[in-house]
Amino acid sequence: MGMSRSLGKAGPLIAGLPPAYFALVMSTGIVSIACHLSGFQFLALSLFWLNVGFYVILWQLSFIRLIFYYSELLADFRSYSRGFGFLTIVAGTCILGNQFIILMGSPRIAVGLLCFGTALWLWFIYGLLTSLTIKGDKPSLDEGINGIWLMVTVSTQSVSILICLVSSHCPAQRELLQFASFCLFLVGGLFYFLIITLIFYRVIFLPLGPRDLTPPYWISMGAAAIGTLTGATLTAHSQGSPFLQQVHQFLVGCTVLFWSVATWWIPLLLILGIWRHFIGKINLSYSHQYWGMVFPLGMYTVCTVRLSEITQLPIFMEISHYFIYAALTAWLLTFAGLIRSLLRSLGASARPV
Prior knowledge:
By secondary structure, the chain is mainly α. It has helices at 2-6, 10-15, 23-37, 41-68, 70-77, 87-102, 107-134, 141-144, 151-167, 174-205, 219-236, 242-246, 248-279, 291-311, 314-350.
């Protein structure tokens, strides 16, 4: 209790910490990798170390929440609208593992993060789906589903990508790991098309106001983009793998399919964003949900680079050269909003009652 009281005015902020805040780690990690692939090495490394700090801080806050605000955390876990935000922890862990391999050449740390991320994926994916399945009081579709549900796909594909990257450093288990990566790629794809069908039905056939169209709906594009990256990563690692060689053409076809779907979403999401903010008059004030918009932009940049590498089509590399600036701009604006929000919160805490 002493520790709980010592948290002071920070207590309510930690109690209400959204489980989806690890989207900050996801977004920073993928933009860092995008910078690396685009030749901005200083930015890539700066964002990497910043992301390590974000990851540690968010885990510290999560442990405080687990110990002192367990009831609030459990309520989030059982929530249709917030529960799938816990899967950002899985994706953030695996994307950080990607950074350790791609930027730092540290496969051992990546293996540790993979084991941790896989354990978290098993716990959250089955825990969340079981909890919501057996729940007695269930909301209507328009109240229950939103873009954060697609974290089921994003988290699954993030585990698949890291398994594939790690497999190159584990020659004895390489074939088995690549088979597991391929299976998760298929499972993630299945989840995408199941959930996106429900989301599409919700936005087309049920009432949708400007306030309902939250930034996580951008994960509709981001989930397809990470499917592209998974397929491209598997294709790039198919040399020397008898199994992946057998499904090479299938992999390329699925990769292009996911990239096409991700590309198709971009104009529609931009149009709906204009409708939300300029016609619906929704202010662009900072919210943690905007990290759900930054991540798809960074992921689209990275997956387009990887698609260019496996197809040998220069046009994809040209597209990525433009999107890296969009991703960086979105990250900088959202990060500035985060800093401003924190300073306001600290100022309010320091003010005498």
